[in-house]
Amino acid sequence: MSGAPWPDEPIMWLICDAGTDVTRISVTGEVDLSNAHLITELVATAVSGAAPLVVIDLSGVSFFGAYGTSALVLAQRVLTGHGRRLILHRPSPVVRRVLGVTGTLSAFEVVDRPALPAVDGAPARPVVPTRSGS
């Protein structure tokens, strides 16, 4: 046995909790070419709801490819185009690294603390990437 997952076993899980103030999306597992579009599609669906804020929890992501970056950039465009706000909540180290290497981390509002900011439009605390070994 190679250790590879079974062909019908999912590699990514999405959970969506659509509220009136906040839509929370949790992403767990591997985000790659085969499934990154599902994040964008879920965000596009969330736009039809009333919540002005969409929070994507990325703390459970174990692999994050370039298509994941594209999906988040597109999701942000969709939300901004509809007057909504996107927060990336607790991105895992692999997500943070890919977004940092691609230069897109600073384009997102990122919250690392467990509690999320109020929905009143106040900005979340921005995350400043640090260089290891400095």
Helix/strand layout:
Blueprint: E1 12-18, E2 22-31, H1 36-46, E3 53-64, H2 66-81, E4 85-89, H3 93-101, E5 109-111
Parallel strand pairs: 2-3, 3-4, 4-5
Antiparallel strand pairs: 1-2
Helix pairs in contact: 1-2
What keyword list fits this structure?
5-stranded mixed β-sheet; 134 residues; alpha/beta; globular
What's the quick description here?
With 134 residues, this protein is of the alpha/beta class. The protein has helices at residues 36-46, 66-81, 93-101, and strands at residues 12-18, 22-31, 53-64, 85-89, 109-111. The radius of gyration is 15 Å and the shape is globular.
What does this 3D model show about the protein?
Mean pLDDT is 85; it is low at 123-134. Helix 1 (36-46) packs parallel to helix 2 (66-81). With 134 residues, the protein is of the alpha/beta class. It has three helices and five strands. It is globular and about 35 Å long. The N and C termini lie far apart (42 Å). Helix 1 links the parallel strand 2 (22-31) and strand 3. It has a five-stranded mixed β-sheet. The longest helix has 16 residues, at 66-81.
The number of helices is 3
What portion of residues is helical? 25-40%
Could you say which structural class the secondary elements and strand pairing correspond to? alpha/beta
Biggest sheet layout: 5 strands, mixed
